[in-house]
């Protein structure tokens, strides 16, 4: 999938289209693993997404990670061990990443796992059946500027991702079009 600019008004629909076509028919539950920190602006994408989705569609979606209880380098190994193990469960992994200059401030969705912490040379487990990555900064930039990333951009990116996931679940599992899309707008 081509990168999606965070401020593209169609971003949630593009994300929904990709997810809807990528999730196998046999899947009856999604685990949304929202990776990141609640203390570093540039690493808060996952926790924002988790907070926006918390409590929605509990029959078909489990959210792991939010602003109150983030999933980060200190606890991800333990959390991954506790994942619901079922062949009918599919995992979406969401994280902030660094990338090439053409991808800055875009959302990249692709099949396959992501490896959190790789920009910081962390040795963490790869997670997810589908990866949703928000490209926050260029990989050659000083990583020390990550805490000072524009929080508005991170939040708008999180809203687009959360809406895309919510629309996917609503369509995939037949929820009414009047059902809530996000907890907090």
UniProtKB/TrEMBL annotation:
<dbReference type="InterPro" id="IPR023430">
    <property type="entry name" value="Pept_HybD-like_dom_sf"/>
</dbReference>
<protein>
    <submittedName>
        <fullName>Sporulation protein YyaC</fullName>
    </submittedName>
</protein>
<dbReference type="InterPro" id="IPR009665">
    <property type="entry name" value="YyaC"/>
</dbReference>
<dbReference type="Pfam" id="PF06866">
    <property type="entry name" value="DUF1256"/>
</dbReference>
